[in-house]
Amino acid sequence: MVKGNGLKYSIDLSFEEIKLPPFQEILILGKNSQHGKMGISKSFDMLVPNGFELVEVGHPSVEAVFVNKRILSKMPKEKIIDILDDKVFPFVSEGELLKVDFRVTISYSNIEQEF
After folding, report:
1. Most CB atoms within 10 A, among 3, 57, 76, 115?
2. Domain limits for position 82
3. Which superkingdom does the taxonomy of this entry point to (predicted)?
4. What is the 8-class DSSP label of residue 89?
């Protein structure tokens, strides 16, 4: 607490490291966003060259989706868009930028091989 001339200040302070871009997996761009898809795409090209793929979608409230190419190496973009369309797109407002944490876990079970 800092005192001076009868004034009291109470300060809570915290900070953490951020990474650029400020999301790691998927960014959804709502229709009529002030951040156009071309502007965001150019920014990503400068920050993370060849790191994200722009996927244009035909949804009433979503203009485009930026998907980390690491995810695309694990599953097809059509499946990713289907999941987002079902679970996330209904909650996207016009003009909104939405960060999506989309973690893919791959597992195998009952692997049988002849030796």
Report:
1. 57
2. 26-100
3. Bacteria
4. G
